[in-house]
Amino acid sequence: MPAGVKDLDKGQILFREGDPSDAMYVIKSGRLAILKNKGNSEIVLAELGPGDMLGEMAFFDNKPRSAGAKAIDKTTVIELPFKALHAQFKTFPEWLRAVVKTVNNHLRNANQRIKNLERLEGNDAAVFQPHLITRLIMILAYVANRYGEDEEGTEGVVVPAGMLRRHCIQIHQQPTHKMQILLTALDERGYMTVEDLGEGRQKITVKDVDELFDFVEFYNDWLFKDDSKRTTIDRGEVKILQAFTHFGKNYQPDSKGNVKVNLTGIQSHCPNELGFKCDVSETDALTEKGVIGDKISEEARILVEFNYDEIARLYRHWKLIYDLNEYQA
After folding, report:
1. This prediction's pTM
2. Where are the alpha helices (DSSP H) in the chain?
């Protein structure tokens, strides 16, 4: 199995965050810093030394580098190209390949759970903590459903601002300034409109009350579900769901609401129509989570089947979850 030796000077980059993954490395001598971009600066996640391996997680899914690596001192690494490793891996017994893949998936899922916990712990400083999101949206949905009025020429129902404020303060004892920020956030994302009428008055219009109720039930169910039964969509996977929602509407669903889409076509058209790349390999994690079906090779095309309405629902709700958890007022 061919392997190359690479010598790095102090400060030299081995690979950058976001680079394509085509090899893993073993440090022969020296030290490497694992870096994560944050704004215009870099955060050192870890320091690795002789005998340590890096870049191995991408062997199975070929995802872009989730972090960068830079030499702290003069460093020598052994490069193990994935192409050669895959050829070697195919010679392993099937049961051993399954074990190795399972261990890799468990490690990646564990890393993601750690990231989710860190995100939740950091939400104390965020505008919206997860349970505050469900409380505020439920108040808004309830008042809109109970007291909202149809108005000619207006899409949705007009919510009486005074009644919304009363429920927020007196009945549910929630911060009204957070409700106001939520209204702005939902307005920016097309769920409603907030018009300033002057003198502190507002016209609040919710476009789809049922959508708000459905979001609250979905997010609340996820928040309280046991980790072993919880399916989490990663931030990067939200874009894949966006692509499936965008292109899936062009396919005729079967009697069960399932559509079979051409992944190869999506990969080709995604940059022009949605402004980002959608690599076929990036869908593997969604298959493992049971969100979509297995890939099907058919006439030089790669197809995948999923329930369109459920994928569209997952996309809307998970996008809103991340948008609100990361919202900056």
Report:
1. 0.63
2. 82-89, 94-121, 130-147, 161-166, 176-188, 209-224, 235-248, 263-274, 284-288, 308-325
